[in-house]
User: Fold this.
Amino acid sequence: MSTITRLIAAAGLAVTAVVGTTTAAHAQTTVTTGVQSEGEVACGYDYAKCVQQWFEYGEKYIVTHIYYRGGGYHFYWWG
Assistant:
């Protein structure tokens, strides 16, 4: 194998290694996070209104249970 052929082959392997690592790192990030959006809904003191909002969010997103914290009822959503 000539010197030029060896250099071209080595450069090709180096590019493949860098591109492969970048792709693998990107795939890892995508797989581990997966969450595209998330938030907390503060409903206020009206529990029935909060249940309605919870149901509406639940049709589109994953929602947690409704809980009471100073300032009223809340729930988290993500998806």
